[in-house]
Specification:
Largest sheet: 4 strands, mixed
Shape: elongated
Keywords: Coiled coil, Ubl conjugation pathway
Number of helices: 28
Organism: Camelina sativa
Family: Belongs to the NPH3 family.
Structural class: mainly alpha
Oligomer: single chain
Protein name: BTB/POZ domain-containing protein At3g08570-like
InterPro entries: BTB/POZ_dom, NPH3/RPT2-like, NPH3_dom, SKP1/BTB/POZ_sf
């Protein structure tokens, strides 16, 4: 721990540095008539001292003197390397040995305690020695206050060597004291709010605890230990999250503001920033963390290349509340040149985590069938509601990133196909996104366009979207044919009165995307409402067509009456040609024909009306 030399070694090797004026006067004031007999050098500063007061309290000096006596040498000069706190702390320790009064404070108690341990100033040599005095101060003054405990812990960071404070277990006790005092503050604050009630106008719950700002001064390793201790002690998760957000804001802001850096400094700062992000993510409680904070950490983490486990944890937590994200949150920029504007891969991984969460919740409900049906329906409806919200968000996201010319078809299709069919009630948003992608990527060949448009379910397009598809030159011909076929199928169902077939087909299509995801009542009701609107349009068309057929029938009948002998055969062939609709009976009179015609139209209206009513319920 120190270099010991006698007079002969000092004269033969090198001349010891002359004691400073202050150090000489310091010893002279105590023993003005006794010359100092030992010179101790600490951090390049010499102290001319006397062995007697030092040996009485310092075990280390006593052992040095004893060792020199055994070797028949005289200890007159020694250097103490790596003394905790440097020359200022050593001077205070020497004042204590000489009996000079000085004040122990929060700023010097750690250095004094570690310096006393270095000099072995224990009770074995003198009662109420410096170690005991500093320990009393720590226990009775510092550790009883949260603010003072934080100051003591901060002083441990600047102490050299840094591990000597750990030897005295000072950081460990500071961390415990901070956690206990924080919980006590939380309890007192809660009781005061309870007693005060709503008398105070300001909302205290929205104000951060005062100690959160103090913790931001700690180094990240000490801060992590404090937060961990707080969580174990029982501090509220909301307070921990607020502290994490404030610490990240302060520490990362200071790092980003360093504009002028050398290469070495830049690497050091990035390492520090990386340690901060990874440590804060590892300290997240199980409760929900604000999405804005999670996305902010994810953006910083992707910039400085944090550990993969850290990024995956951030993505998993975002996926837990993906239904509440905004479009701006998902637009994560990419800094690499030659790549797409936004980080599509990260959004894809978040979607995978979200769908895994939905699948796990569904499997959990299936494994716990003992619950009441109302509870099961509520859980299933909640899961499907979240899925529908995510579907709308993803359609908006796809529309936003689609015009990017650097976005590859593979990445765009991977985002489109990952969501199941029942995540979208209508495919208008998906069609809009695909149309924007085709517009921004005119170099796609016909096969690539077909592979992209196959994800659009034409039966889930609104009438406005279908009209746009029919006039869109960017779409392949097969897409337009599919839309026209769907319209024709709807017309056929209405004409035949089999309106339930379209509903069944749509329900099967919605449920075919995921084997484990049943169509919720909300989705079915929305689908029925949509088809009900379409059915009204079809009925209006049928009525117009039926009126036209009646007019044609009257004209043809008048023509037949003018040419007798061929009326029966010609009327029969004409009735078959217009869809085998029984208009005439077996030779009725004019009044009977009109009654039959009215009955046919009434039956068709009642049938279509009944189908419409059933589809609404």
């Amino acid at each position: 721990m120190g270099i010991i030399s006698d007079n002969s070694q000092s004269s033969s090797s090198s001349t010891p540095p002359a004691p400073s004026i202050f150090s000489s006067s310091f010893a002279t004031r105590i023993f003005s008539d006794v010359e100092g007999d030992i010179t101790i050098v600490v951090d390049g500063e010499s102290f001319l001292l006397h062995k007697f007061p030092l040996v009485a309290r310092c075990g280390k000096i006593r052992k040095m003197v004893a060792k020199m006596k055994e070797s028949s040498s005289n200890l007159s000069y020694t250097e103490l390397r790596d003394f905790p706190g440097g020359s200022k702390t050593f001077e205070l320790a020497m004042k204590f040995c000489y009996g000079i009064n000085f004040e122990i404070t929060i700023s010097n108690v750690v250095a004094l305690r570690c310096g006393a341990g270095y000099l072995e100033m224990t009770e074995d040599f003198k009662e109420e020695n410096l170690i005991a005095r500093t320990e009393t101060y720590l226990e009775q003054v510092a550790f009883r206050s949260l603010e003072k405990s934080v100051e003591v812990l901060c002083s441990c960071e600047t102490l050299n060597p840094q591990d000597i404070a750990e030897t005295a277990h000072i950081p460990e006790r500071c961390v415990e004291a901070i956690a206990v005092n924080a919980c006590r503050e939380q309890l007192v604050l809660g009781l005061s709010r309870l007693n005060r009630g709503n008398e105070s106008g300001e909302n205290k719950r929205d104000c951060p605890e005062w100690w959160i700002e103090d913790l931001s001064a700690l180094r990240i390793d000490y801060y992590a230990r404090v937060v961990t201790a707080m969580a174990i002690t029982g501090l509220r998760s909301e307070s921990i999250i607020m502290s994490l957000m404030h610490y990240a804001q302060e520490s990362l802001k200071g790092i980003r503001n360093c504009k002028e850096r050398t290469k070495v400094d830049s690497g050091t700062i990035e390492n520090e920033q990386r340690n901060v992000v990874e440590a804060i993510v590892s300290l997240f409680p199980n409760d929900k963390v604000p999405l804005s904070f999670l996305f902010g950490m994810l953006r910083v983490g992707s910039t400085i290349d944090v550990a993969i486990s850290c990024r995956l944890e951030l993505e998993r937590r975002i996926a837990q509340q993906l239904e509440t994200v905004s479009l701006d949150d998902l637009l994560i920029p990419v800094l690499r040149e030659g790549d797409s504007m936004y980080d599509v891969d990260t959004v894809h991984r978040i979607l995978v985590c979200f769908l895994k969460k939905i699948e796990d919740e569904v499997e959990y409900d299936e494994d716990h069938e003992c619950y009441e049906n109302e509870t099961e329906n509520l859980t299933g409806s909640t899961c499907h509601s979240s899925l529908l919200k995510v579907g709308r968000i993803m359609d908006a996201y796809l529309t936003e990133i689609a015009p990017d010319p650097c976005l590859s078809l593979h990445k765009f299709m991977s985002l489109v196909e990952i969501l199941p069919d029942y995540a979208r009630v209508m495919d208008d948003g998906l069609y809009r996104a695909i149309d924007m992608f085709l517009k921004g990527h005119p170099s796609l060949n016909e096969q690539e366009c077909k592979s992209l448009c196959k994800f659009i379910d034409t039966r889930k397009l609104s009438q406005e979207a279908c009209n746009h598809v029919a006039q869109n030159d960017r779409l392949p011909v097969q897409m337009v044919v599919r839309v026209l076929y769907s319209e024709q199928l709807r017309m056929k169902n209405v004409m035949s009165g089999d309106s339930g077939e379209g509903i069944v087909l749509s329900s099967q299509k919605l449920s075919s995307g995921n084997a484990s995801g049943a169509v919720s009542p909300r989705d079915t009701y929305a689908s029925l409402r949509r088809e009900n609107r379409e059915l009204k349009l079809e009925i209006s068309r049928v009525r117009v067509r039926l009126t036209e057929l009646e007019k044609e029938q009257i004209l043809m009948k008048q023509g037949m009456m003018e040419k007798p002998g061929h009326g029966g055969t010609l009327l029969t062939s004409l009735s078959k040609g217009i869809g085998r609709i029984s208009i005439f009976g077996g030779g009725p009179t004019e009044e009977k024909r009109r009654k039959a015609n009215r009955k046919s139209r009434s039956r068709l209206e009642r049938k279509t009306g009944r189908s419409r009513t059933e589809s609404m319920f």
